[in-house]
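U., I forgot to send this yesterday:
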Amino acid sequence: MHYNSARTGVRLIGPKPKWARSDGGEAGLHPSNLHDNAYAIGAVDFTGDMPVILGPDGPSLGGFVCPAVVVNAELWKLGQLRPGDRVRFVPVDEAWAVAREVEVTAFLEGRVAALAEPVARERGSVFVDQWGEGDDAVVVRRAGDRYFLIEFGPHHLDLKLRFKAHVVYEWIQQQGLAGILDLTPGIRSLQVHFDSQVVTREALWAVIREGILALPPLEAIEVPARVVHLPISWDDPSTQEAIRRYMQSVRPDAPWCPSNLEFIRRINGLESIEKVRRIFFEASYLVMGLGDVYLGAPVATPVDPRHRLVTTKYNPARTWTPENAVGIGGAYLCVYGMEGPGGYQFTGRTIQMWNRWRRTADFEKPWLLRFFDQLRFYPVSAEELVRLREEVPLGRHRLKIEETRFSLAAYEAFLAEQADEIGVFQAQQRAAFEAERRRWEEAGLTMDAPTETEVTEAALELPEGCETLDSPVTGSVWKVHAEVAGCFEPGQALLVLEAMKMEVALEPDAAVTVVQVLVAEGASVRAGQPLVIVKTN
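Result:
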């Protein structure tokens, strides 16, 4: 278990996976990148080459592959893990998972003295059902013992598939089916979360299957929508700080560092960062999902394909992203709902997507946005954004929001009319994508994440009258304030550590003089490891 773990996700250090493809195409350069994947609690999410077991505070939607899910009755074990603990996965079938729920309940009620260890079983097929071809294809996959994922059409970005997922989503909501806990629509998919103690997967899917087969023609559908104008501080100081932290404590040689905007420029074959900026502000981003990286955060893509700036995602992901940072990953834009990890390439920072304080004219619900809203950004200074971030949640500043409708038939007519220009833009983009890959290879760079190594220490001999100040946690060294012969009083930080996505200050209990600093910024440390040799004044 990696030290940067929390209720959002448990990061694991282990062997690098072998990928069956070289990249994720339009979804991103790394093979772990997908167009969309709704996430189950307990899903093993490969953010690049690093597996992360998603926890109860984790995202509900994202763009990484999840090949496995920890069964519901075993999730309690995640809360017992500590940095350095080792995790092994055991394949089980659905019958075992359902029986384990009963066993755990009996254990908690005192009717069973101990829980048996899981025993490997033949797990069966991942597919629940599938039929059709092309845009009419439907594939249903298991996602653990309490979820299944319905995927529509081929793996590409097509708003018609999003319409289909939306219609099925609304139909299921209208049915009031017993046992459904949650529905998460994505770009071309819909995840169903159900209570296996109330309804079986087979019974629930049989009803939903009939609803999908009875769908009306999608071309006749219009959905209510809004145009929401959002301020953005372009290349905001907070996102620059996140890049600096990433370079120091995660990966200093990443191809997207030190400037995400320069990386976006290169990979899209644009002549300047100013051209990136112009395309960004001309675009109208269609909200296709909510909950991508927490708290009503939108995943959106430009309505006009000529505005789709395609990038890859960080590998490994950042451990810290500022709240409401705006980023692009694959062909998608996201506004981060809260501080936390992340992998999209930064463009700037905007206002809150979730109002934790009160309801206002703009925040009729705690979340700001709705499916099929169109986001249009306008530039403000970093100082102006600070003011707006104070005033908007309190209702003292109204956002410009215009009511509209979105018609699939009208949109497809627009695509047909602009097909030639769209084709030219996408061909240039694909060429730049491949040129960037070749540049990495020639420069010896790689999409691979750096290898994590276990912390080792040399034997330490203390000078007479000295003692060590030891690390209270397993983590990494974020800042070193201590210097030889420096004097520090109680409450003054000699070092600042990063662990469990928090900053931990190392402070003396008494006035001390620094004799030797044993670690450098960016170093990994374990709990109890000596960090500084000091002498009490």
